[in-house]
């Protein structure tokens, strides 16, 4: 309780003003000295003076005196006011302190969250969750890192993630840090393999997971790896064929060091070794322009010949010199064989262009060994004509003759195509050369040639032809040597549609047309038309636009392998053989052939080399040390091989069985064409094999042929190996007849 200092009335402890008189109440505070000590009682009021009645003896009603409250006055700075002010300041300080703590906690908590979320500061290199390099690169880029890609050869599939360089999972790096993603290019030959010892090269290449095959090649640096296929630093396009390495040995021939050498330097080098050298141009990559890309005899092959043809790389500006040949005082584009070779897309889809069966000009090419029904459908650069004019791009004055053919233009490109612009009667090309030939219901027929040309029947059949003849879209490639102007072709509207793909202009390539969108077109618009219309699918002014624009799926790059390993003995040093190696490549068995039980024997000349012919798909073993003759100028039918002393000659030869002769018919044909003095000692047929041995002109001839008709759908071929030696050299020749002929194999 409080006592009003003014009127003495008792007030509650929490009252600020007296309830009786309204005076301000003073709240007592304990000093440090009196805290906790009881204060003395308030003195009683003084006794009244004499003469005045004692108030306590009177009965006077007590009434409160109304008091008008006075306005509160400012704090007078007394002790009580100071206490109140101090209390307020303390409360305010506490509130500010709490707010500061809360703000600090919020900031710290948010900072920790931002840190943990890696919205600022270093980033954690994530654990890799994919086996594909593309996915790994995206994962790292999503964390803010800069990704660099690096490719290495390995046994894993192309594009497989291998490892990281410059970081590892769990590392914390600044945003924008560079990390290298190492990915697989698939199997290949790592750079630096050439020049290694065979042992080191084999150890390196065994990790590629494919067959590794070693060959001995003539080289100036024996005992080292002199050449590889694929080339040093290049990927493997055909895993089934494996990786080939050429180990240098001493010997006579064109050394492998000639490959890639400047043409003039190479010519001088071989001439200094006693060779007579001819230089010829061939399309090549930009890096090989002016350098040797091929040779005949083959580079690295042992031979005692003193004549050599060296092929050097050129670009589109030399196209007429590459595919052209002098004919009737003009230049005709008939040397199509110069375009033969293997071509592959970026993804490893490969095709092989090889010389077809026809020996006529122009040389025709076929795709992947598939001979067409008609030689007209082999690939050439020519339009149909009865003379060389269909192959002449320009006349003697330089005026274009093949109107709107690319080869006559200025882009440097050329069209390699089938059909020569001729119509079809069913599946057969109809040339019209025979005036008595006609087409009836898609079947070629002939009228009686004894009747006059303008006989009514002929007229009727001529009308039938007009009803039946059609143009079909056939194989067509645009050949793009280095330097050919693709942009000009695109500007001219040559292609249908567009593509973002940019072909590698530093390598020769083919653009393959997609024929699926094209439908057959009648050769005569109306049956009554007397003039046949131009083929809309062949080069010329009426050709439909090329479908499609160059893209990753239709651009095939030339594979450059200056050394042909099919001409060498091979030894598999790792991986298992797939049955298709060039020495035992899965040939068709000839179980009924005479003496096949002796096939495991080798000749007395030592372990043999194997000759492999890719055009006619056959192989035969040749005794080691024999001289390999040159490739034929026209058509890769085969080769001749001569013993070191010149006594024995082995001829490997093949041709197409265009007469469809059976083995017995072939034997009869051979016997009928023998010289008059020939004395036959052996003439037998065993299965598909024909054996014929005879003496003539003081020489002994032993021949084995494999006769293949097309009754089973295969291309009809006759494969042959012939041994010839003097009658007085039977001790050397006879043992070979028991072994070499039996190694002849059909690989088709």
TrEMBL record:
Q: Which UniProt keywords apply?
A: Kinase, Membrane, Serine/threonine-protein kinase, Transferase, Transmembrane, Transmembrane helix
Where in this protein does the record put region Disordered?
Answer: 32-83, 524-546, 570-610
Comp. bias (Basic and acidic residues): 577-600
Q: Where is the composition biased (Pro residues)?
A: 63-72
Residues crossing the lipid bilayer are 94-115
Instruction: State the Gene Ontology terms under molecular function.
Output: protein serine/threonine kinase activity
Q: Which domain of life is it from?
A: Bacteria
Name it: Serine/threonine protein kinase
Per the UniProt record, the source organism is Bifidobacterium leontopitheci
